[in-house]
Design a protein that fits this description.
The protein is α+β, with helices and mostly antiparallel strands and 496 residues long. The chain is 17% helix and 41% strand. The longest helix is centred in the first third of the chain and has 29 residues.
Amino acid sequence: MSKNLSGKKKNKPAGGKALVKPEAGKEKKEKNTAEAKSEKLITAEKLKARFNWLYGDKALAVFSVLISISLWVFITLNVTDASTKTIKEVPIRIDTTNIEETFGLKKIAIMDPPALSDAKVDVILSGSIYQLSRVDPEDVTVTAQVTGVNRAGEFTLSLVPMCSVNNVNVDIENGYTFVKVWFDYIREKDIAVDKVKAAGVTAAAEDLIIGDAVSSIKSLRISGPATVIDNIDTVQIRADVNKELSEPFETAGKICYLNAEGEDISSDHVSFITILDYNGIEEETGTAAGVPADDEINVIIPVSKKAQLPLGIAFKNVPDGFDTNTLSYSISPETITVEGDIEAIDKMVSEGKYMVDGIDLTELSPSETKFRLKLNLSTGIEEMNGVSEVDVTFNLEGYSTKTIGLADISQFKLSGDWGAEGSGHKAEILTESLRITVAGPTSVIGGMGQANCSVTVDMEAHDGTAGQRKMPAIITFKNDNKCWVIGTYTVMVNVE
């Protein structure tokens, strides 16, 4: 066993372990704290060295600029009200629903100021840049206040501009604060075209005639403001031609509306007229044919020709060989002046005379010498002096009549192949005698007798049906062309 040199016993902790002195633990703790502080100081020194530039004058200047810019942007976007923005062609809203339902009125047009006739305005917005940047054209409205509109006429309506984005002021450019609007009832009217006019038209020759202009448009059904429609009395179709014409001419026309005084309706009012129908107005149903196309609003200028023609007479029932030129007669009038289609008139002129149809020679006798004939001109040809009848007087001095009995059946024959062998028709003349009256020059008629005459039965109109029938008899004269038969005659024929 070892000995304690000092003569004192060592204190041992319970359990046999040695005890540490309190002074030694304290020193160790202080040592650790000092080391931690030293490490923090070293770290701080390193950070200070790394960010040392932030504490320089240049860094401070940069930070100052950035802060200033940020403040400027903020103030500009959110505080300053000095910025403006223009929205072009904002529609003017005019809500007429109530006045249409209550009074039957329609908005016709903006009458004043003229610059707003298209119902659009330019609007100036003012506010912060940020607020203005949020505004779209759809956010801006301009409304006309229709309060007080209760009858037809012009009303001054206040304009109220608004923007749905907050903190934005709205003003109408040029200081417009009102519009004058025309309200009216809508009328319809059916009206016939009164006249068609073509200006500046001349004929290329003296024998050409410029006729009255016509148009394809005959009638209209129109609609528009009552103030305008009620003032329309007549309608015309007009065209400025300014040409010398030698043939019919067609050009585009213009519809013109006139009042009761014959004055044109102003073009401003005409612009409010709508054509609903033309030429298709049915009395019962009023079915519309629609708006005429531009090429249907036309002006047609007829050009005709005139000519003076001598008159002649066309005869009928003239015996074979008879020369009508041997008859002396007068015609009143002797000439006519005709107008019509250029080609038709040229053809009439080329024929030399206009032949009036017609005198039946079987009606002419020394006791019946005057005839009145109708002037039957072709369609499209007119007599310019109003002549519709022609008087014809024959000079039959030196003429006489004679009755002749025809009893020689051998002088009777059937026309064509009737009764001939192989014709397929068996026909027999039953009449045995015929008394006829003949007219002619007295110097000739005295020697006329049965031997000079022959009778032909005209079977052309016979249909071949068996039986007896009267058929026309045609009398001709042998060796003489100056006589004719007065009256008509028939012969009985039997067909088997």
